[in-house]
Amino acid sequence: MSVVLQTTVVSLRSGLPWDVYVGRASSAPDAGCAGADGCFGNPVVPGGKRCFVCRMTHPDPGDTLPCFQQYFLHRVKTDPAYRVAVQALRGKRIACWCAPLEPCHARTIAAWVDGQPLPAASADLTGEAAAARIASRFGEQQD
Ligand SMILES: [Zn+2]
Ligand SMILES: [Zn+2]
Separation of 121 CA from ligand 2 center, angstroms? Predict the structure, then answer.
């Protein structure tokens, strides 16, 4: 039996409980909360500024998401510290200011995290190999 941990996206506007803030540092709801430094925030800013990914502007916040995804997938591949930090979000309630049904970069994060294989340590404890190992350990103790 393996426990499936699902990462949940919570809108800060909903008032529901959450664990880690994944928005930008400038709008952190609480200076002391996990993620308040904006480390999981979307660096692609909507408005008149040129996007560092596509070199265009994104007037609408939702338009930044394809570029966020590109940035995110590249960063988890090339930045091990970031990847580990993101993987630690697995099973957590991650919070952003977007309304519950609005497109949000937090969903990109949650989908990626939940699609990752579980760490080797816990994968080790499932399946027949583990059963055999436990059986052999039991046998040793019986001796
Ligand atoms: Zn862009
Ligand atoms: Zn959001």
Answer: 32
Give me the residue spans of the domains in the chain: 8-142
Distance from the CA of 51 to the center of ligand 2, in angstroms?
17
Q: What is the pTM of this model?
A: 0.80
User: What's the per-residue H, E or C state across the chain?
Assistant: CCCCCCCEEEEHHHCCCCCEECCCHHHCCCCCCCCCCCCCCCCCCCEEEECCCCCCEECCHHHHHHHHHHHHHHHHHHCHHHHHHHHCCCCCEEEECCCCCCCCHHHHHHHHHHCCCCCHHHHCCCHHHHHHHHHHHHHHHHC
pLDDT digits (tens, 9 = 90+) for 28-60: 999 999 999 999 999 999 999 999 999 999 999
Least distant ligand from the CA of 42? 2
4-22 tens-digit pLDDT: 789 999 999 999 999 999 9
